[in-house]
């Protein structure tokens, strides 16, 4: 085996590695569910939903409440002020999600007996295009 063979093998290995990274980076380990599949067993788990933003409201403290609907039901998505600021700094205007379809990734939580989704990063909510 000469230097040329070793270079060829190394090049193929690098190429396979890069392709593997690209493929796995597009795969999410977070399961996508319908809203009616979210139950008590989902509390604390990270999930992904897609739905239509019916309503957006904002509290005095800067927390946003999005009412998101899919074909199976409704769920509140709560964006705390600290995350809302990070989103704003990243050029994401939460009010612009109104009456649009979005993808949301976050943890299921319960507040006053009601289930809700809490996104955890500025990239957790995206408009469906």
TrEMBL record:
The keyword Membrane applies. Residues 48-121 form the OB domain. GO terms for molecular function: helicase activity; nucleic acid binding. InterPro entries: NA-bd_OB-fold, NA-bd_OB_tRNA. Gene3D superfamilies: Nucleic acid-binding proteins. Keywords: ATP-binding, Helicase, Hydrolase, Membrane, Nucleotide-binding, Transmembrane, Transmembrane helix. Pfam families: tRNA_anti-codon. The chain crosses the membrane at residues 6-24. This is Nucleic acid binding OB-fold tRNA/helicase-type.
